[in-house]
Fold this protein.
Amino acid sequence: MVYRFKSDLKYSDVTPKSVWMNRRHLMACGAAAFSVAGVSGVGVAAVRNQRYSTDEELTSLDDILTYNNFYEFGNSKGDPSQHADALTTSPWDIKVDGLVNKPGTYSFDDIVRGVNMEERIYRLRCVEAWSMVIPWIGFQLSEFLTRVEPQSGARYVAFETLYRPEEMPAQRTRMLDWPYREGLRLDEAMHPLTILATGLYGESMPNQNGAPIRLVVPWKYGFKSIKSIVRISLVADIPETTWNMQAPREYGFYSNVNPNRSHPRWSQASERRVGGGIFAKRIPTRMFNGYESEVSGLYADMDLMANY
Ligand SMILES: Nc1nc2c(c(=O)[nH]1)N[C@H]1C(S)=C(S)[C@@H](COP(=O)(O)O)O[C@H]1N2
Ligand SMILES: [Mo]
């Protein structure tokens, strides 16, 4: 299911509002895409969003594809690229339940139909103190949440990854308490930086990166960006989340990137950009991963050392 840009735009010449094509999104989005792309059979248009993108050097596709955390396929960085081929990503449904007016089972095609597909180049900062710069394709989670109509009592959004041990070998072990779960406060989920990503580098989402649809929350440690989502629940109370349950002192519910708060076992003040080679200098980690001006308002009244 690999597909490519029809246009030969390069990532080095990011043009404002330039439009690119992508075959799988065309198939997913159906006829609506043709009128946007203006060319039949090549793909749906997505806009390069510069407001929310960085112009830092991109991490290579090879590194993004082979250096992964996706514990369902094993806990070494190379395990997901070796084993995720086995994952069936079509058909794919997301179950929406809890405090919403429009609960139900939504197919992948239905979810992406008509959304504002964008390319956004975000920094990804793993809690393990490495980082990447990734050109995602996706749309704001707020678009989907608005569509399912959260009720007034909904204060959090809970997410679950697929549980399918036949295809995800580490789910046959007790490495983690499956399925992988994550959560956001509703205002974090509605923030314009929070996206559901369906691709990267102009192609459909590689399995090892969370096909066919995963969360990306760029101001939080990478483990919040849950992959291969099959369930989204609107809830009143703070949901249980995998790493927080595993080691609450090490991984808080918020897990905002914060260079001032060390992990109990290592500093978070600096990070290693993947791909720089072993002699590359570490770079300073930025508050909220460099998205402070966008998101600090979400935490105005909070003690970030206590609410980590
Ligand atoms: N379901 C699931 N989602 C997950 C993980 C995981 O193990 N399982 N790992 C997380 C971690 S720790 C990181 S850093 C990112 C890595 O995303 P990438 O492999 O696309 O770079 O995915 C996150 N999402
Ligand atoms: Mo991570």
User: Anything to note?
Assistant: Residues 1-41 have pLDDT under 50 and may be disordered. Residues 69, 126-128, 222-223 surround molybdenum atom (ligand 2) (CB under 6 Å). The first strand starts at residue 19 and ends at 20.
